[in-house]
Design brief:
Layout (H helix, E strand, L loop, with lengths): L3 H10 L12 E2 L2 H11 L6 E5 L5 H8 L3 E6 L5 H8 L3 E2 L2 E2 L3 E5 L7 H5 L4 E6 L5 H11 L3 E9 H8 L9 H9 E9 L4 E2 L6 E8 L9 H13 L5 H4 L6 H7 L12 H14 L3
Helix pairs in contact: 2-3, 6-8, 8-9, 9-12, 11-12
């Protein structure tokens, strides 16, 4: 696996540097990627999709578990060095066979076409600037991915895992809870990255579960959440009162004087259900 010296040598030899516009920070500590691979729980026979493999540090650690890895990289400039690094990743069919690299943007790729009908685990050091959109797009559009283990900025990790009353709860917290549960598995210091970021990172484990309702879906629930959180310090009656009247709040069992951070997913589902049932057919 790649250490600091190897990372710097690869970047220099290929005339590359981390691109801030793509949120790139390369992991330069073998112990960190080995720990993430262990936390992912993957092993022989598992199918792993990695978003943003970069120079291949984590990719090598995942291949070392015996899993088959599909690495999706957006930055075309990294593909030659990535393939060079991964040429020695041993698979059941010989060197380099454990990993398949494809060029693609996780926010645009056709996940159904890429993953097929098999079950997958997503493991990734996600670029800071697209971490939340990538997680949400995978959860909403790639049901084949049953589990995610992702390294993100600590502040983002706290938002994804937040519950009612937490200072970091917000729209991502509620949306993630529709599809899955999340918890912080470990934190990661800035020193393990090249370049070194100014913030701490964390590894988040995300496990899918059944949706909380079949009567309403994200199309009914999420707009309420988004509107309420646009003015999160205001009471619900002020932010979504034009959609949900007093009778709707009463039917849902929700105090209209509450602020959105006091509600959890089941509360929003009841509000959306009360709104849907109150609309004329």
């Amino acid at each position: 696996m790649l250490g600091l010296g190897e990372i710097r040598d690869l970047l220099e030899r290929h005339g590359l540097e981390a691109r801030r516009s793509l949120g790139q920070n390369f992991v330069a500590d073998p112990n960190t990627v080995a720990r993430i691979a262990r936390l992912s729980g993957v092993g022989p026979g598992d199918r792993v999709v990695e978003v943003g493999p970069g120079l291949g540090s984590l990719t090598l650690a995942l291949a070392d578990t015996g899993a088959q890895v599909l690495a999706v990289e957006k930055d075309r400039a990294l593909l030659p060095v990535l393939r060079e690094v991964l040429a020695t990743a041993d698979g059941p069919d010989g060197p380099g066979a454990a990993v398949h690299v494809v060029e693609g943007d996780a926010l645009e790729v056709d996940w159904a076409d890429l993953l097929g009908a098999d079950e997958w685990v997503l493991v990734a050091n996600l670029p800071y600037n697209v971490a939340v959109p990538v997680v949400m797009r995978v959860l909403s559009g790639a049901p084949q991915v049953r589990r995610l283990v992702v390294m993100v900025q600590l502040e983002v990790a706290e938002r994804l895992c937040a519950e009612p009353g937490d200072r970091t709860i917000g729209i991502p917290s509620v949306k993630l809870a529709w599809w899955a549960s999340a918890r912080i598995l470990t934190t990661v210091p800035p020193e393990v990255f090249v370049p070194r970021p100014r913030v701490q990172s964390a590894v988040v484990g995300i496990e899918r579960h059944d949706p909380p309702s079949t009567a309403v879906g994200p199309a009914e629930v999420f707009p309420l959440v988004e509107e309420a959180y646009r003015q999160r310090r205001k009471m619900l009656r002020s932010t979504i009162g034009r959609h949900v009247d007093a009778a709707g709040f009463a039917t849902a069992g929700i105090d209209p004087q509450l602020r959105p951070e006091r509600l959890w997913l089941d509360d929003w589902v009841r509000l959306a259900t009360a709104l849907a049932e109150g609309e004329p057919s």
